[in-house]
Each structure stands twice: as structure tokens, then as C-alpha cells.
Specification:
With 346 residues, the protein is α/β, with parallel strands linked by helices. The protein is built from 12 helices and 10 strands.
Length: 346
């Protein structure tokens, strides 16, 4: 049941980060289709491309970092109040900026349950009771901002809407630039790798990624490194596309692959959004935080050591030398990959 029936138009606020913005897309599709809602979406400029072509997002309002400084933000608030008169405000961020906006908003306001205290209490206690309270993933928590029912995870799966032109560009890029016979051989297995993470503690060791690539080469599997990072994994290798493609191009290439292996990161959700099976490597963070890939074929590899989870975002230093990530071996990941690929990959 919809909480606020009087408003069909809503301004959604989710300024960052990539994974959080992607995680809203399936929720808005579900709410839009079921309740005939339309949305304007307020986010940072770098994340706006993932919202393109969304059937229920009528406008994306993108802001720069400068727009979010205090006085500039107050000016943005006045613009939003004029542009979105009579809109409801859907706060899917719940930071200081969105709270200021809510204080002066004239229409109905709704926010999602962030479970901040529950997550911190679970981090300290590892209580099974608190673990049950954190069972809902982030898209489900977002949905609770506007509806009283609890949709199934599959109904809220993130989704990015690619155009036919973008798909065709990716096919041509693979065949012409990388000599991957995507069109000539429908059984070609392409494995995308995202070896980067915002915090070092969430990163699988670099030497493990290199060993995994070696094993894939030995089994004649095509691999591509995607993402953005100061230091590419293999800067001189043509199959390392780090920093070489735009966000939409990255998604289009990913959509043609058979698998994504990734750290716990924003691009992890992009695989789910284009229905590519994801193998996600978790260590200092946990599924209880809600940020895990939610596709039917997605899998989280998490050793669940007694010390894990040890932080909310994986930014803390580790007294155990990041054992939770180091104990996930390349051999273990490669074995899982072969089991999950179609027979042509084995």
C-alpha cells in the first residue's frame, strides 16, 4: 500500500555514491509501474548517466561538488522549491543537505529507514536479533519510504536502460578494438573484472587478480578490466579498460559479458542492473549492511571470520592484515567461476 496517495510526482534525493544511486533504479521502476508515480531525481553529475532512459524518471537534476557547498546549496534549494512545486520529497540519502531540504519543503516528505543505530550496534555485538532486523537489502529499505508492503528482492532489482545504439557500440568495440569474436561466436565467454574499491580494506590483493587472469588465460577465457582508478591493474594491456570508457560505455560492455567478478563496490550493482551474474568478494563489510548484489544468479563470497564485519564501509585499518580478503584465494574464485559459467566456459 502506498503511504502518500495524494502526490503522483516526487523529487528523489540521492546525491551519491554510484552503488546507492544504481540501487534506487529498480525501486523507482516498481513504484512507478505499480502506483503510476513520476520522479525527478537529484544527484551528483558523475552519477547521472546511470539514470538515463529510465521510464519513470522524467528529469535528472545533476549537481557539481561546488553546488553542494553551504551557500550554493541554499540557492539550489530555492530553485528546487520553484521547479518542483506541489511535488512530494523522497529522501533516499538522509544526510545533512537532504535534512535541510526537508525542513523547508512545502509538500509531503518521506524518508527510508537507514538503520544507522542498528547497524552500529550489530557491528559491536554481532547479535542474531539485530541481524534479523537488518535482513532487508537497500532497495527494500528504499521502497519502505513510500509503501507499507515489503516487495520481494527480485521486484526491486536495479536496472539500467541501455539504448540499441549503446549495445551496438559495445559489440563493435569488442570485435574491432579488442578482437574478441563476440558476433562470430555466440559461445564466447567474456569475464569482466572490477579490481578496485573506495577503501583499501575492501580490495582483494592485486597479486590475486593477476593470478586469476593467468588462470583465465590458460583456459582461453576472455577477460576485461573495467572501472576507474588512479593506477590501472595492467596499464599497458589492451584488455585493461580502466579509465578508458565512459560510465555508459562501461555498462554497455558489461552487459555483453557472461560474468562480473568484483570487490564490494559501486560497479558491483551495475552487473545486477544489466542482468549479468555477479561474483562479489566481501571481507570487512557484510550483507547485513544491505549493499549486496541482488540478482538471482549473484553470489557473495564472504568467509565470515569472527572479526568480520569490522567496519561499516571498510575504511578501517586491520590488525589481522586483512585476512578476510587474503584467505579468499584465486583458486577458490576460479573454481566458483568455472562452475557458474555455461558449458563453453568450462
Amino acid at each position: 500500500m502506498l503511504i502518500a496517495r495524494s502526490n503522483q510526482n516526487w523529487l528523489v534525493v540521492r546525491l551519491s555514491a554510484l552503488g546507492d544511486v544504481v540501487s534506487t533504479t529498480g525501486v523507482l521502476a516498481y513504484l512507478g509501474q505499480k502506483y503510476s508515480l513520476n520522479f525527478y531525481f537529484l544527484t551528483k553529475k558523475h552519477f547521472a548517466p546511470v539514470l538515463e532512459n529510465h521510464p519513470y524518471i522524467k528529469k535528472v537534476i545533476s549537481l557539481t561538488d561546488q553546488d553542494l557547498h553551504f551557500w550554493a546549496w541554499l540557492k539550489q534549494i530555492n530553485k528546487l522549491k520553484k521547479e518542483c512545486q506541489h511535488f512530494g520529497l523522497l529522501d533516499l540519502h538522509q544526510n545533512l543537505r537532504s535534512k535541510i531540504l526537508k525542513l523547508v519543503w512545502r509538500g509531503p516528505v518521506s524518508s527510508y529507514p537507514k538503520f544507522s543505530l542498528t547497524r552500529r550496534a550489530y557491528l559491536l555485538s554481532k547479535s542474531s536479533l539485530l541481524q534479523k532486523r537488518l535482513k532487508l537489502n537497500i532497495p527494500q529499505r528504499y521502497a519502505l519510504a513510500l509503501c507499507t508492503d515489503r516487495p520481494d528482492i527480485s521486484e526491486l532489482r536495479p536496472r539500467v536502460y541501455l539504448t540499441d545504439e549503446e549495445k551496438l557500440w559495445a559489440q563493435r568495440f569488442l570485435t574491432s578494438n579488442l578482437n574478441i569474436p563476440y558476433q562470430a561466436n555466440t559461445n564466447t565467454q567474456i569475464i569482466c573484472l572490477h579490481p578496485y574499491a573506495t577503501h583499501p580494506a575492501k580490495s582483494w590483493p592485486e597479486k590475486y587478480w593477476l593470478k586469476l587472469i593467468e588462470m583465465m588465460d590458460n583456459h582461453s577465457l576472455y577477460w576485461l578490466v573495467l572501472g576507474r582508478n588512479k593506477k590501472p591493474l595492467l596499464p599497458d594491456h589492451p584488455q585493461d579498460l580502466t579509465n578508458k570508457t565512459s560510465l555508459r560505455q562501461t555498462i554497455a560492455i558489461l552487459a555483453l559479458s557472461q560474468h562480473l567478478i568484483t570487490n564490494d563496490s559501486g560497479p558491483m550493482h551495475l552487473g545486477t542492473a544489466v542482468n549479468v551474474p555477479v561474483l562479489a568478494l566481501f571481507g570487512p563489510t557484510s550483507k547485513e549492511w544491505g549493499f549486496y548484489p541482488s540478482g538471482e544468479k549473484d553470489m557473495v563470497v564472504h568467509l565470515q571470520l569472527p572479526c568480520s564485519p569490522c567496519s561499516l564501509h571498510g575504511q578501517d585499518k586491520c590488525k589481522n592484515n586483512y585476512r578476510c580478503m587474503r584467505d579468499i584465494t584465486p583458486e577458490m574464485v576460479f573454481k566458483l567461476l568455472l562452475k557458474r559459467l555455461t558449458p563453453a566456459g568450462g
